[in-house]
Amino acid sequence: MTHITTTLAFLPFDPLYLILVGPAMLLALAAQFLVKSRFAWASRIESPRGLTGAQVARAIADFNGLQAVPIEPSQGHLSDHYDPRAKALRLSPDVFAGRSLAAYAVAAHEVGHAIQDKTRYGPLVIRNAVVVGANLGSNSAIWLFMGGTMLAAATKAPGLDQLAKWLMLGAIALFSVAVFFQLVNLVTEFDASSRAKAALLSMGYVTREESIPVSKVLNAAALTYVAGTLTAVLTLVYFIFRFSQSQQQR
């Protein structure tokens, strides 16, 4: 599960920002609570098959020709991810050794990413190509925009005024890469969850009744990506609006 973290907490207080982006940020908080509560709930539903999440992941990976992909334990709660550079799948302790439907759901989701990598799934290829730029944009755009905004407010000198303009435009361009990443990542995550549900059901690791808790866990996780994408898009809208407003005041 891949996220791009932004430094939006450092944005200066602005009622417009809170009005525009605040609801999406609240949705993100609610989604984080939901995914943790649903994972905890589904973790209490033990699978009668007695397999661990790592064993289920191994079986699904092998079935899809991914015998060379190692499945390794990782530290942290819900730190599960597929590393496309190392071609390795890493599972958190609760998933790696867990024998619950929650463990099966998360493990199968991460195998879904490994399958995407093997088949050169378009959105994953694009996501991996822009991740460095997206990280740069999400972490630096806010500072560039703040610098441009303060410079524009502090001076009317033509040279500095132009510098302020280009700082803000640069911030918008950089943050646009982060927004693009979020949109492509959203498609990638939904596809991985779809692959996970289908694999667990078709290979007999869950019954149709058991697939309901699995879907609840994966749908809650998907909501975190929806909220993150919505927050990023609305933040970009905020940047564009404030930039246009500053230009109209010149």
The strand count comes to 3
Portion of residues within helices = over 70%
Which strand order does the major sheet show?
Answer: 1-3-2
Mean pLDDT: 91
Residue fraction in strands: under 5%
SS summary, helix count: 7
Note down, in words, how this protein is organized:
It is a single chain. With 250 residues, this protein is mainly alpha-helical. It has a domain at 8-46 and 122-248. It contains seven helices and three strands, in the order H-H-E-E-E-H-H-H-H-H. Strands 1-3-2 form a three-stranded mixed β-sheet. A hairpin with a 4-residue loop joins strand 2 and strand 3 (88-91). The longest helix has 45 residues, at 158-202.
Write the topology of this structure.
Blueprint: H1 15-43, H2 53-63, E1 71-73, E2 81-83, E3 88-91, H3 93-96, H4 101-118, H5 122-154, H6 158-202, H7 211-248
Parallel strand pairs: 1-3
Antiparallel strand pairs: 2-3
Characteristic key phrases:
250 residues, mainly alpha, 3-stranded mixed β-sheet
Question: Short description, anyone?
Answer:
With 250 residues, the chain is mainly alpha-helical. It contains seven helices and three strands. Helices cover 71% and strands 4% of the residues.
